[in-house]
Amino acid sequence: DQFQAYARDFPNGLHREEAASESIRLRELLSEYHLMLADYYERIDNLEGERLHLRLAAGEVLQGQRELANYVQGTASAELAAQRLAALPDAGGTP
Q1: Residues 51-91: pLDDT tens digits?
Q2: What percent of the chain has a predicted confidence (pLDDT) above 90?
Q3: Cα separation, 72 vs 60, whole angstroms
Q4: pTM for the complete prediction?
Q5: Residue 66 CA to its chain's centroid (Å)
Q6: Residue pair 62/81 in contact by the 8 Å Cβ criterion
Q7: CA 65, 66, 71, 74 torsion: positive or negative?
Q8: 6 near 19, Cβ under 8 Å?
Q9: Contact call for residues 53 and 34 (beta carbons, < 8 A)
Q10: Within 13 Å, how many C-alpha atoms sit on residue 71's CB side?
Q11: Positive or negative CA dihedral for 20, 22, 36, 79?
């Protein structure tokens, strides 16, 4: 949000490229955070917890988390999360 405000207020700002780069890095870290939570739930054999955090990491809109989804969509971590999610068994128990 701060980057968007900076870019809007200072479209030719001195630190625009650096701010854009940091914005991308932070979006990636947010998705990675949910991947780490998915890893935890996988370790404790909680498939639903793992699935939930993979969906959040992938940028799906869940539980009113539209803003989170907008931030992480398009990141490398979101792509990885989507791949891992596709490999999980579905709710019926088939891979």
Answers
A1: 999 998 988 877 777 777 788 888 889 999 999 999 998 76
A2: 31
A3: 9
A4: 0.73
A5: 11
A6: no
A7: positive
A8: yes
A9: yes
A10: 22
A11: positive
The answer for 14, left when phi > 0, alpha when psi is -120 to 50, beta otherwise, is: alpha
The tokens describing 67, both together, are 């803003």
Q: How far is CA 12 from the centre of its chain?
A: 29
C-alpha 88/C-alpha 95 separation (Å) is: 6
Residue with more model confidence, 43 or 22: 43
Continuous H helices in 1-95: 2-9, 16-43, 47-58, 66-72, 76-87
pLDDT digits (tens, 9 = 90+) for 9-20: 887 877 778 877
- Give 83's contacts (C-beta < 8 A, 6+ positions apart): none
Axis-axis angle for helices 76-87, 16-43 (nearest 10): 20
